[in-house]
Amino acid sequence: MTAFAALHVPGSPLLLPNVWEFGVAAFLAAQGFPALGTTSLGVSAAEGEPDGAPSSKDATVRLARRLTALDTLISVDVAEGFSDDPGEVGALAAELAEAGVAGINLEDALGDPVRHAAKITAAKERAPGLFVNARTDTHWLGQSDTEAAIGRGKSYVDAGADGVFVPGLADPADVERLVAAVGVPVNLLLIPGRVTVAGLAGLGVARISLGSLPYRMALAAALRTVEAVRDGGELPLAPPSYDEVASLLPENH
């Protein structure tokens, strides 16, 4: 079992913050988080590209290479693999594994499950030690069909997936059904107001992702800060100092 896989404990889930650039990742790593993931929305937005678009592949790989220098394990959101070709997805998995990435998140966007399974198999064949988290969008883009989530999840596990991710799933009974059925660590998305870390832990979830929430909260904090300065109010948060942030960055040589 890899160090990253060992963090996925049903009932004591890994809380995985998702980042979109090096500075945020370095700051969180310095706080002791054992693993970080990337968010395709944040990475794509930083590049001025649509979420998960193939045009954001290079930026994703470039960021991943930088993040592996940090003292934390890194999982990379590769959307649908930036390609419909399983061979190309396998090559991407091998490239990321070679760079020191611990895992990838690979989503089906509710496309053909057979093709998605082929992508998973290709990724595991080219990078056997990489933790492949297979995301199915039954509850994110589909009709919240838990039976479909279980069916797709099991087919992805048969293809070699190490974990199953069903963002949008929140009903406790359905979560328990999924956990019992797929036989691998289950990853869910934290949805404020609908689920809590303690609640999901009690249902046997092994990983909880924050997804694009930190990025979107950063946008809100930036706006609140600018508005506070404009209106003569108090800053909404106490930020780290310039020197504290600078100390987290690579030294100039």
TrEMBL record:
Sorted alphabetically, which SUPFAM superfamilies does this protein's record hold?
A: Phosphoenolpyruvate/pyruvate domain
- Which GO terms of the molecular function aspect are on file? catalytic activity
CDD domains noted in UniProt: ICL_PEPM (cd00377)
PANTHER family associated with the record: CARBOXYPHOSPHONOENOLPYRUVATE PHOSPHONOMUTASE-LIKE PROTEIN (AFU_ORTHOLOGUE AFUA_5G07230) (PTHR42905:SF16), PHOSPHOENOLPYRUVATE CARBOXYLASE (PTHR42905)
Any idea what this protein is called?
Phosphonomutase
| Protein source organism | Amycolatopsis regifaucium
